[in-house]
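User: We ran a pulldown and think these components assemble together. Before we commit to crystallization trials, I'd like a predicted model of the whole complex to look at. Sequences follow.
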Amino acid sequence: MTLASVLIVAAGLIGIGLYGALSQQSFVMLMMGLELIMNGALLAVLGFWSFALGGMPEGQLLAIVIMAVMAVEMAAGFALIVAVYRNRQADVTESLTTLKQ
Amino acid sequence: MTDALFTGLSALALYAGWRVFRVDSMVRASFWLMISFIAVGGIGILLSAPYIGVATVFMMAVEMTVMVIFMVMFMMNPAGLNPMMMVHQHRFSIGAGVVAFAGMTAATLLTDLPSNPVAAGKAVVHDLGIELLGDSMLIFETAGVTLLATMVAAVVLSARTGRFGDAVEGSVPPGLEPGGTPAGRVPEKSGGHHHGSHGDGRSDHAHHHEGHDHDGGGHDHAGDKEKHA
Amino acid sequence: MSLAAFPFLAFFLTLGAVLAVVLDAVARSALAGAPAGRYLAGPLRQAAMRLSGQLVTTEAPDRANWRLAPGWYGALAAAGLAVVPFDEGLALVQLPTSIVLWGAVEALVVVVVFLHGWSPNAPFPLIGAYRYVATGLPVMLPSMFVLIGAALPARSLDVLAIVESQREMWNVVRQPLGLLLLLIVGLSLTLRGPMDYADSADLAGGSSAEDSGPARAMWQAARLAMLVAFSAMAATVFLGGYLGPLLPGPLWLALKTALVLVLMVAATHLLPRMPVSRMVTFLWVVLLPVSFLHLLAAGLVAL
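Assistant: Here's a predicted model for the assembly, 633 residues in total across the polymer chains.
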């Protein structure tokens, strides 16, 4: 277990998450992709903290901030999904075309 | 031992992450995501971050349970009885994922990474606690206030009734075909609220039951008849 | 990691489960005013019937999760018991944040019970699963506050330190409300009595309505294992765990665990159950603020 191996695993998670966020039509699945990206980011932060920062407490703080961001993302995301569904009966990205030229 | 555990947990995290987008049911997808998070939490413990690692597990368990509830609410095929593959720009997405992975891996391998590992026996949890309520208290409290603001925003966004009446008032779902009848569930017409004696029956109905402005026909007639009478 | 704790863990799980079955039977017979013998034979007969019964399946279930759910539940019970110290320094898993690990076990129980109810693809189990999520998630919050409150006097998230901090005074004396709140959490974790929204009789067995044969026996066994794990944890966090004069530590822990088991079984059989909606209101509107105040009081006392 080295910093490079941890970062490569994190890159893999981010890659899979990016694929999901770009390819999924359903809002909820799209959010799963975003969560997976955050998962990779969390792992990368932990790796850097553990191998390169000598256990500086600010590194752990950053990990906690990432967790808070995940919670915010999910709460705000689901609220938006509920609002969009109420207004337009839409649950896939294709149904939202008001900004399309 | 540590290396074997790390390899196993990494493989589990990646495999679970990949399964998220390949299974047929939303419930399975969110629990695969949870497994991916649990594996990352386990790696966190190996990386001598016991608090963050374990906290990830419990936070994600709760979060994914909530996610499942929403999944089943919003998705067709919650039970996974049919194959489910709802994707767009599939090739582009695969390409983007691969490029992102390759780019970050290359960056990792080509960079001269610093090395300053955590000293064994360092009281990391204690340090974190001191940091959270010491130097970084402002950041920590900001995160707390942000979460509170998010809760308020989520309630406002998802509440059916707002300050100015129903959240959905005046909005009609798009038709199934252009110009056709609006999509969505239209409540069955039942007796009991045909009280169009206020003259303008339509606006009266609008605030009571949001579904009724879709099937306004019947109500209008009722209102008109009373007006004429 | 101390492997010497493993025999204790196995011993606690088996003996505790047997004790729980006996206590349940005694409570039933006492309530019915009938001799206990008839009720003691009941569980044995039922277990034999279940284990030799055939496995009936539903239409298009998620077979893997359905079969694995009892295993997950039992594994969570074992993981929870693994952080309980049976004697000074004698816990299977030693982490500086072991109380948080127990919290993670509690949160994962909600997931496992949901999976168990969702996977048969049948109405009653699914309703049970949903009802459990609706009540189980709000119960998590008081649980976290209670556990943090119990960790405050120890100034540590390690269960070993929490036990050591109770040498002069048990946590139940410092925070009597904490034990009460934790018992409510425990009833929810083990799907018992007033908090049994997943597996209750009004849903014909709820999340296990479609379980049959050995699978149902396994689920019941896993519930008993969780009951034992919870009781040991409550005894450790609030009743001083292995601390006590004269007798060896593990025996003290066993006695205290048995005491919590008696309380849990009594609560199962004596307390009424509210409708789900009223319980959800109660959990959010009463229990959550009460646990806030409890944490505040615990913090002020610990200062």
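The CA atoms of residues 69 and 222 of chain B lie 41 Å apart. That may be worth checking against your pulldown data before setting up trials.

User: Thanks, that helps.
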